[in-house]
Amino acid sequence: MTPDTVPVRDFIHVLLQPAGASSILDIGCGRGEDLRQIAQLTGGDARLVGIDASEATIADARRGAADDSRYSFLAHDVTTGLPFGDDEFDCVLSVNLLECIPDRQQLLREVHRVLKPGGRVVFAHWDWDSQLFDGDDKALVRQIVHTFADWQQAWMADADAWMGRRLWRTFQESGGFEGAVHPFVLTNTRFGPGTYGHASIENFRGLVKRGMLAPERYESFYRSVVELAATNRYFYSITMFVYAGNKRG
Questions:
Q1: Fewest C-beta atoms under 10 Å: which of 15, 108, 118, 245?
Q2: CB neighbours (10 Å) of residue 69?
């Protein structure tokens, strides 16, 4: 996370409505940053559970929680189901995970199962194809954004760059929830470390390393960004879509 994504996370956490919840599950919890922030909104004694497929990030999450007994972190592949009982959680959160799940409806059925009646669900996702960079070569900008968006990285079981805009469809098809979609547009007018746009451009170098983008094309794009930034004309944005709702039935 870069510092400019803090307001995005705050936006997501408010939509979760964790105040008064006694149990919260974060699916794809990473290092547990979201749960530690949410803990400040719960009233202090909620059970906070994180699950992630990566053993390394779960180890980091456990270290970050120190000896706080409210937290438990589990390394588990959620495509095989959620290892929890029926009606176990007041709230379920997931950020930037759903696009990587091949059977998304199966996961939502599991979320529905582990949520208490009327429980709160929040799934948030960047819409990777919504990344916008100003520049003079529109074709080049479009090529880079779309190529990155369609890149299924080695650790991903699936990839859908439109997952953000498809959250509504996905939840509607499940039939198990009643909710709405809320957008948050992150913008940068400064180019440099600590900004999400800068981190994205650095990630684009991976396309060059894998032969998905010619080096000279990347360098031309990068020079254009630097030139715009030098004269205070740089602009970047990306949209986070958040489905927030409650369990039906």
A1: 118
A2: 7
**Could you give the count of Cα atoms lying within 13 Å of 80 in the half-sphere of its Cβ?**
7
CA 82, 10, 187: angle at the middle one, nearest 5? 115
Task: Retrieve residue 121's tokens.
Answer: 């669900």
Task: For residue 95, list its beta bridge partners.
Answer: 124
Q: What is the 3-state secondary structure (H, E, C) of the chain?
A: CCHHHHHHHHHHHHHHCCCCCCEEEEECCCCCHHHHHHHHHCCCCCEEEEEECCHHHHHHHHHHHCCCCCEEEEECCHHHCCCCCCCCEEEEEEECCHHHCCCHHHHHHHHHHHEEEEEEEEEEEECHHHCEECCCCHHHHHHHHHHHHCCCCCCCCCCCCCHHHHHHHHHHHHCCEEEEEEEEEEEECCCCCCCHHHHHHHHCHHHHHCCCCCHHHHHHHHHHHHHHHHCCCCCEEEEEEEEEEEECC
Q: 109-162, pLDDT tens digit by residue?
A: 999 999 999 999 999 999 999 999 999 999 999 999 999 999 998 887 788 999
Which residue is it, tokens 């039935």?
249
Token representation of residue 221? 């794009």
pLDDT, tens digit (0-9, with 9 covering 90-100), for 25-49: 999 999 999 999 999 999 778 999 9
Q: What is the pLDDT of residue 153?
A: 85
CA distance 182 to 126: 12
